[in-house]
Amino acid sequence: GKLGRESALKSVRERLLKTESDPTAWIDYGNLLWGEGKPGLSKVAYDRAASLKGNEADALNNLGVAWVAEMGIENWVGAIEAQSLWSRALALDPEHPGAQFNLGHIYNYYRLFKLALPYFEKVASRLRVADIYDGLGVAYAGLGLSADSKAAFDRAEQMKLNPKRFTTSYIAQQCDVLGSIKDEVKGFEAASVERALARCSR
What we know:
Blueprint: H1 2-18, H2 23-35, H3 39-50, H4 56-71, H5 76-92, H6 97-109, H7 113-124, H8 130-142, H9 146-158, H10 166-171, H11 175-181, H12 187-200
């Protein structure tokens, strides 16, 4: 709640007053600012954390997320900056799960499925998370690997993902479901739904 957030902000600010060179405190501060709906300010905190020794990969990963959140995933400047930051995070920590997932996600979004797949496969080999299997399913589908795609989507739904979500509905061309979600999607997803619905009406 609000009181809890205010208490957490006060606590992390006190930590930063004691030592401005604590990268974890700066990351925590960025996370709290992010939770307050302030991605621009969170970028400042993450950037400060990335300039300090310790936890640089976490800071770079979160900074990339903040760039996309502030500018939008379809803003090329923000997307390229985020991709660069996530790549830098992986250069420091080749097994960083957040950076692997985020690179896979942005490559999927831009239909670069061949680039996305290795990141999802790597993170899925270590973590069992529904959104990871969903991303894996999208990449497999984009590469024409329908059996692998179905297996990944089934695994995601076993973990309680909505079976009527955009990804599976679009790939399966479920016209009735796509019609019900057309007002909920934006950008490339909205354009994809519009094209699919045009095919449904033929």
